[in-house]
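Risk mitigation, structural track. In case the binding assays with adenosine-5'-triphosphate fail to produce interpretable data, a predicted complex structure has been prepared as a fallback.
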Amino acid sequence: MNWAQILFNSAVTGSLYLISAVALTLVYGLAKFPNFAHAEIMSLGGFIGFWVTEQLGAPLPVAFAAAFLVAGIVGYLSYRGIFKPLTDRGASLIHLMVASMALGFILRHTIGEIWGFSPLTLSIVWPAYDIGPLRVTLNWIILIITAVAVGIGLHFMLTRTRIGKAIRATASNPRLALSSGINTTRVLVITWFVSAGLAGVAGLFRGVETRLSPYLGWDILLPTFAVAMLGGIGSFYGAMAAALIIGLAENVGVVLLAEAGLSTEYRMAIPFIILIAVLIFRPQGLAKAFKGN
Amino acid sequence: ACGDDSTTNPTGTTSKPDVNLGAVMDLTGALSGIGSSLADGIRLAVKQANAAGGIDGARINLIVEDGKTDPTAGFEAVKKLGTVNGCKVIIGPMISGAVLASGEWAAQNKVLLISPSATSPAITNQAWRQYFIRTAPSDTLQGKAMAQLVIDAGYKNVAIVVQNTQYGVGIADTVTGLLAGKATVVSTVKYDPTKLDYLSDLQAVKSKNPDVVIHAGYEDDAVIIFKQAAQVGLDSAKWITSEGVKVDKTIADAQAAAFMAKVVTGTNPVAPAGLALAATYAAQYKAEYNRDPGTYNDTVYDATKLAIAAMQNVGTTDAAKISAEILRLGKNYAGVSGTITFDQYGDRTTATFEQWKVVQSGATYKYEQIKLINQ
Amino acid sequence: MAEPLLKVENLVKNYGGLCAVDGASLEVGRGRFVGLVGPNGCGKTTLLSSIYGLRPSDGGRVTFAGRHIEKMAPHQIFDLGMGNAFQFPRLFPKMTVLDNMIIAARNQPGDHLWNSLLRRGKWHQDEERLAIRAMQLLELLNLSHLTFAKAGEMSGGQQKLLEIGRSLMAEPELLLLDEPAAGVNPVLGRQIFAELDKLKREKDMSFLIIEHRLELLISYTDWVYVMDRGKIVLQGEPEKVINDPIFFEVYIGASAAGGAR
Amino acid sequence: MDPILIYGLNALVYIGIFAIVALSLNAEYGYTGLASFGKVAYFMIGAYSFALLVQAGVPWPLAMLLSAGIASLFGLLVSLPAIRLREDYLAIVTLTFGEILRIFIKAEDWLANGVWGMNIAPSFAAGNFSLGLLLNLALVAGILAACFFFMQLLANSPFGRIMRALREDEIAADAIGKNRIKYKAQVFMIGSAMAGLGGALFANFVGYISPESFLPIITFTIWMMVILGGPGSNIGVIVGAAAVQLFERGTIILKDYVDLPVDPTNLQNILFGLIIIVILMYRPSGLFKESKINTLGTRRAMRWLNPSSK
Amino acid sequence: MNDILTASGIVAGYGDVHIVNGVSLRLENGGNVAIIGPNGSGKSTLLKSLLGFARLFEGRIVFDSLDITGLSSDRTITMGLGYVPQTDNVFRNLTVQENLEMGAFVRRDGGIKSDIARMYQLFPELERRKKFYAGSLSGGERQMLAIARAMMANPRVLLLDEPLASLSHKAAEGILEKLRLINEQGTALITIEQDTRRILGFARRAYVLVGGRLALEGEAATILENEEARKRYLGLSG
Ligand SMILES: Nc1ncnc2c1ncn2[C@@H]1O[C@H](COP(=O)(O)OP(=O)(O)OP(=O)(O)O)[C@@H](O)[C@H]1O
Ligand SMILES: Nc1ncnc2c1ncn2[C@@H]1O[C@H](COP(=O)(O)OP(=O)(O)OP(=O)(O)O)[C@@H](O)[C@H]1O
Ligand SMILES: CC(C)C[C@H](N)C(=O)O
Ligand SMILES: [Mg+2]
Ligand SMILES: [Mg+2]
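Fallback model:
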């Protein structure tokens, strides 16, 4: 068994989940509901990247910028057009969840209408290096670096900057934030934009690594939730640890499953078995953050 | 009033009501690459039949539904055609999964399904077989061909990587059975064809160091399998894959195609060498649609022709009669896919396969025949 | 003297590193009206919550009607005959005021799925009785005009009143009340205490009440515990306690800004 | 029978089956506030139990009851760890449970034929297809009526009051003596049994099931029915079930008559999404408002307030 | 004109329901006004309507000679209105220290640090818990934090909804003393309170709200003496 490779792959898997989960928890922490449309915003990011590189012929960094921007704008619009009006009308957590699923449907099938449901692949061939027992491709390295940078950057923003604190205040008590003079709408707009933008980036990474399909995001939504919940919503150290744990569990899990003669499709169950165990014994996730009553 | 018996209109002078012929083809999904070309094959046959006077003077009205390369969608399409459009005969569904989903319903509702391409061995002796006929050879035959390639090359450590569907598992089971005692299966992976990320599965396979990987899948998942196999370095083994892979799309992706050119070979049902009918059909098809007919185009054409001929002979209302008539016709029937002889179930008794490989020509890749295998 | 109804011995409750209740002991006898006072943050609410099983204690014993209840969940403790009203009301905001009341009654046959569905006669009579009782309480609390309003659409004080009303519906043997008069208009506050007093006399009910309004404590309680920094530092009859220098030091305070602790 | 008529009756059977499942979600979500996003799992358990039992020779009416029982048992098993979770976590965990179960059935082919799926011999050996359809319709309608009646009784009883209380503040409910774990588990058992019954009817009607018949989209469809019809209203969710089914079918047939510029499935799903959002925004209580609990107590209180009337 | 805040003809409520029916009130520059009344008489609603949290059907609100009717609350706060809600008045998931920082969100001057230090001096129990999440505070501690938070904005008018509820005698007196201090330094106050005796001893003028209308208004001391009011609203009969 090539454990070095498995470890490295875990880091790759985990990095993707990290970006996606960190983006998810931004809105999760603030708007207080799991945004299921996060999945389709990821898919959208991937397709925008595809469109920019394959159909417009621009270089990949441009594609990433475009994915961030367009996904961000869609996130912004979804907040303005759907989630803000709903919240203003006093929608419950479950209503918001259902609305986000509905938005996911709209996005997924709009993407499907434009680009079709058959998977598309990006034509970029990434150089692969064999370092000792390790096989490493350039895109994997870029992914890991990006994930760590995003994680640290966001953590810094939330704890150190004015807007970051405003975000947390709004998350905690929007009404009171308003009566402290915080323009909560602006705070939410920024958060939605950044969250969706990052989702777009995560989606494009996923697209680069595998392929593009309107189901791209949905396929990694459940592990993303697992990471977010395991890490504790809104905790970045927690998220990083959780991403690594889930990445590891999946990669080791597949090997063990194959060894045991079980279907490797059980892989998706692994993060959740861990998650449920953790939630039952430690409902706040890995994070120390503790929520008062 | 679809599928009404035209004998109620004995004068024959006024135009008879149309006969609805259904088709469930996978226009979207993992087989979208061949689905629409198969639909064209049916259209060609129907067009020719209508030009020759239709069925007993009635025009054939073809209704194509999208099976989406998905068992449930395929089943829904069958139900829709059978009820809303009152079709007694449906060409399709294409994939084994959809056929297995629809069979029971078809039998209960007395609708005949004729599939050009559903190859799973599990279909062979289903209780509802009276209402299902296929013009593609069962994978017991293709599996034999694939196993033979392994044995001939003397591979000892075999990995099996198939999509976890009735089709993929059918091939996996057949091949595994045939290889028993001749080679060791070191790893079996059945993957979800809709998930499209197989890095860790392939990694697990790679760590077993197989000499050869047996693969069965459809074009969409195959592209990703090959692409990611390249990434994890599974070109350390040779690959033998199935007919669901051989379409243009798999070689449109540079990385997948490069990988295929390097280590992949596969099998595919074809018409026997030098069959004149096949050449004629290919020419007609090309003239009509300006492209070459691909895999299963010949079988879909034969399926449609047989269906129309049987309806002509026994009427258009009784699926059981139509079914029996097709079996009767299918004794040394000269089809464009070769001579068709059905066994008691409605499976072909013989078939020809080609072994293919991928070669690079300039910046692009194409398929090339290595040899023919008769089963 | 017989065993007291409620006996708390050396109760301890930590929040992380902070020891909110630090070995507190107290007793409430049957038919007694007991007060609990202390500076803000001294652990009163925590003590009550731990007794009631809302925040499991970390040490000590709680005996209620002869049974150890320190490991029990609130609903089990409720079933034994205790009741509780929260400092910050926790109502069922989308249910009507009436439903908020009726649901809180004890031992309803309809609580069981089986009875609710199939033995309807069993709970039907009960409902009539409960509705009448609920209406009587609502009138007492000045809430009867809101009988069919949603609980969440009431003012802060009204919610507080409903919280009290709900706890009374259960007719518990012992009722834990956390600042029942906070946010309640003084006129009404007095009426409520008078009613509690009546329940004590007529039905032999017992009360353990946290309250900052000293005048109410003085007029109604039989016994007062003073808590400071998680410990009971003083107890006695209200008049005595009020005049005790310890009480003066920890609760009234010499200098208001000092908050000497 | 006329194919169009057959199609219509067919649609009615589906409406009935899904209305039963929608009623079960209404018990869980509409009344009790449990975000059960794993509805399809119990539907699937019911269907597979039925298929396996019938295959083993159990007479179908008994098999149907047993399937409901088995689904209910699973509901209990899953709920025990799950209902201790926050509602958003519960949603995600139950959603995943559905997926894991599907993978399980797919992977463990010794149990229920894996990807091959199972054929279910028709229960009504009517010999005549139209008659079979009518019998199926009657069966589904009967069971739906029973489920509806059951839910109405439940909703307007003290138990219904407890369900709603749990939805709004379970800690407070616990503090007034309602064992929240017990009640939630009971609700999950009821809901799962009904969903299982729906699954059994489904299997019995279509005659073939495979893991692919139980994708998460089914859960979403059922949620739509409830959200559209009105959570907390039993009539509402049945109307919701009918509306969603008719809409689904409508868009499929539509393309035979109009030349749609977009793919009908895409159109259907995009419209689905839009309708949901519009409903949540402008009529969050659904087409039918949640009915107030109507018991003797309510009426007695009204008389108290207004002694002159009645 | 030396009124910093005037509200005239306020009709306010929730949804379509009118709760407050034509109430006018004014607050002098540096004034100190109390609002009392039975539960559910519309006091909180009145205050919320001034800030844009409850629905304002009719009426006009002028703050510092500017018409602020219908302005969103983050704007009014920036202009110098501070608010302590009756319930839910702290950021539970922020620490005590962060709560105070958020209170000063609208300020951009350099004095924030020293003001936080000043708050800690005023409320030593808060300093001891400055790294705690506000959600974990006791009822009284939370109340103190809420007031301190609102004071951090250096408002010119502070609206307080039952600041003394849940406070011990000592703490209540302490807070009143602090409020008196900032009032003397120029911050005008409107306080809703049920501890009527205490608040009437503190405020200069008072309004009695009953059933959404003004039942009485005048000098606090006079109302405290008013036999009718003592009996009906203050619970001080005799
Ligand atoms: N969110 C709401 N929706 C509908 N009605 C409400 C809402 N909040 C309060 N009310 C109603 O408005 C009336 C006045 O409420 P308000 O909160 O202004 O009273 P208050 O004078 O502050 O009382 P308290 O002293 O109890 O806090 C109450 O009768 C209440 O039923
Ligand atoms: N969940 C919690 N986590 C951490 N500390 C807590 C928690 N709840 C309460 N505390 C702390 O425990 C102490 C006691 O709190 P408690 O609520 O019991 O006080 P109290 O006596 O009821 O005060 P008050 O009269 O102000 O309501 C306080 O210092 C508070 O900060
Ligand atoms: C079109 C083919 C690739 C279908 C395949 N033979 C199947 O049985 O599923
Ligand atoms: Mg307290
Ligand atoms: Mg108020």
